[in-house]
Amino acid sequence: MGQNAISFEQIKKIGVVGAGQMGSGIAQVLAQKNYQVLLMDLNPGVLENSLKSMASSLDRLVKKNFLSEDLKMQTLKNIQTTSDLEGFKTVDVAIEAATENVDLKIKIFKSLDAVLPAASLLVTNTSSISITKLAQQTGRPAQVCGMHFMNPVPVMKLVEGIKGLQTSDHTFETIKKLTEKLDKVFVESIKDMPGFVVNRILMPMINEAFYVLHEGIAQPAMIDEAMKLGCNFPMGPLTLADFIGLDTCLSIMNVLYEGFADSKYRACPLLVKYVEAGWMGKKSGRGVFKY
Question: Where does the chain hold its CATH 1.10.1040.10 domain(s)?
Fold first, then answer.
């Protein structure tokens, strides 16, 4: 089936599943490049907030003279919203951008595979979950790969491309061309290992920062200051964790721990406690820091 997959030149309409922070950002950058975008979320309120968020983001770009008012209006016209998958029957590429939960992603992948045209590609924005496992849930494993955008999507240049065991060269090359069309840099993760490139390195570092806090070695602000001034980081690891979401950090650490069965990936008990307390970071108003 992978040999009959759609080519880059044929891509006109792209569906995005999940209208949270990542899904909204992905929808925006696609629409800015004049792709027809269908943004799907089960919650109409989330869709409404997503459109407001995109409008605000585009307004900021207009004020900075990065975007014309006409292009802003055209971008918003390029986006349609829906609360079901019916419209995905005409989509060339589907990008799943739901919560980092393997059972949820498997359910979405099965549903998408049932409605997408046979030639369409199925892509996941997962930051750590096995592409090979998700692809196996479909009848088109050669047409599945990872396309991991960084947050905030309109600003960050990197897209991590992840090749599953079954991903065809054609699929991977098509997604690479799509990435470059979006003015992003495509870094290839040619082995489908837990955490891929970025989170394999980043999350253990964040986890270690939590251990430094947990063991009382330094206060949160001092830990961040040390890494900013000592390693030239633009943002300290604890602040970054709050921005990512502590629940997401914990979820990724658990994927690494289960995937490698190595104690060096064990989540810090303090990180676990914060999540149990509902301190998810910036999005909940409280994480390591208060917002």
Answer: 199-281
Binned at pLDDT 50, 70 and 90, residue 1 comes out as very low
Q: Which letter, b or e, does each residue of 220-241 get, where b requires 16 or more Cβ atoms within 10 Å of its Cβ?
A: beebbebbeeeeeeeebbbbbb
Give 199-281's CATH code, choosing from 3.40.50.300, 1.10.1040.10, 2.30.30.100, 3.40.50.2300.
Answer: 1.10.1040.10
Mean pLDDT calculated for residue range 43-54: 96
Is 148 an active-site residue?
yes
CA distances from 224 to 178, 202, 228, 281, 282 (A): 36, 14, 6, 15, 16
Instruction: Out of 78, 199, 207, 251, pick the active-site residue.
Output: 199
Q: How far is CA 272 from CA 214, 257, 278, in A?
A: 11, 14, 10
pTM of the model: 0.91
160 is a catalytic site residue? yes
